[in-house]
Each structure stands twice: as C-alpha cells, then as structure tokens.
Amino acid sequence: MTSPGTGPVPDPSGRRAGEAVLLAAARLTALLDEAASGEGLTPLQARFLRTLRDPVPQGRLAAALGIDPARVSALTRELAERGLVERVRADGDRRQRVTRPTPEGEAVVARVGARLAAATPLTRALDRVERERLAELLERVVSHPGAPAAGHAEQPDRPLADGGSPGGHDGSVKSM
C-alpha cells in the first residue's frame, strides 16, 4: 500500500518489533557490561574471549568481532599479559599462529556466562518454550543478509570500574 508521493506505508508491527529489540538489546548490553566488569574486562574483551572456543587466526577473530585486525592484536596482547589467552602455532600449518584461551581464560568466560545467566531477568517472564522460540526468532533476525555485522557498532574498550557506564555506548550486543 502506498500514499501519493510518499512511497510504501511502513508496517507498524515492524516498528514495534524493532523498538522492542532495541530496548532488549540496551538492557542486555548493560547486563553484559556489568558481568564483564565483574571480571575486570571490557565488554569487547569478554566478547573476544567468548569467541575463542577453538584456536583462531587473528584475521578470523577480526571478522567475527567486526573490528580492525590491529585492534585484535592489541586485545590479544592485553589478554595474554593477564594470562587469559596465548598465541601458539597452528596444528595444521606451523607457519600460522592462532590465539587460544588459557584455562584461566576459559574459567573467566564461564564466570561471565554464569553472571549473565543469573542476572538476566529479561527472560524470566517466559517459559522454556517461549525462550526457545525467542532464541529462534532472534537468530533468524541476526542471520538475515541485511543484518549488520556482529561488531558493527563497536563497544567502548574500557572497564566500567575505570570510568565506563552501563549502556553508555552505541551498543552492539552479542550474547555470552
């Protein structure tokens, strides 16, 4: 349906859904900020660690996080200094170096995940079936070809304890 000279009339349900997703994202981002800062991490550092389920080359990390490869190098260095990640030679190609979590890095990821799970009141109003359906719908939304990359709106890189504020950024959210 179109109005004369104005193009298609927007679907009000699309706007309502978009606003609800943005509000939920803002609240979840604040929870991630809090969970990450509880471990002395920035939200980006927490996302970086979570991405390292397996040893990963720097370029793939940059693509997965939607950030510049130089920033990945800096994050790797910062987290390696804290004993949370290490750079090692790749098993299949000894010329390539990959980043992997240390046991302490894996423990930090588990603790951040537990903090998030314990502090996520947003889904308590839903039963198990509703939570599964919500997860399916959100996965469909973020995997749509028109969706921005995961790191499109990069979060600030400073721990909240050092002056950051929950929700005080432009908020790309990636679940822990």
From TrEMBL:
Q: Name a biological process GO annotation.
A: response to stress
Q: Which GO terms describe its molecular function?
A: DNA-binding transcription factor activity
Q: Which residues cross the membrane?
A: none
HTH marR-type domain span: 14-143
Q: Which domain of life is it from?
A: Bacteria
Region annotation Disordered: residue ranges?
Answer: 143-176
Question: Do you know which Pfam families this protein is assigned to?
Answer: MarR_2
Q: Which PROSITE patterns match?
A: HTH_MARR_2 (PS50995)
InterPro entries from the entry? HTH_MarR-typ, MarR/SlyA-like, WH-like_DNA-bd_sf, WH_DNA-bd_sf
- What is the protein's given name? HTH marR-type domain-containing protein
**What species is this protein from?**
Pseudonocardia halophobica
